[in-house]
Amino acid sequence: MRPITFKQYHCLLEFGEYPNRRTAMVLIDAEDGMVVAKATVNLVNEDVTGKEVIVKDYSENTGMYDCLFKQGIVGPIKRVPQAGCIVCDLLIEPSN
Question: Strand pairing partners for 2?
Answer without folding.
Answer: 13
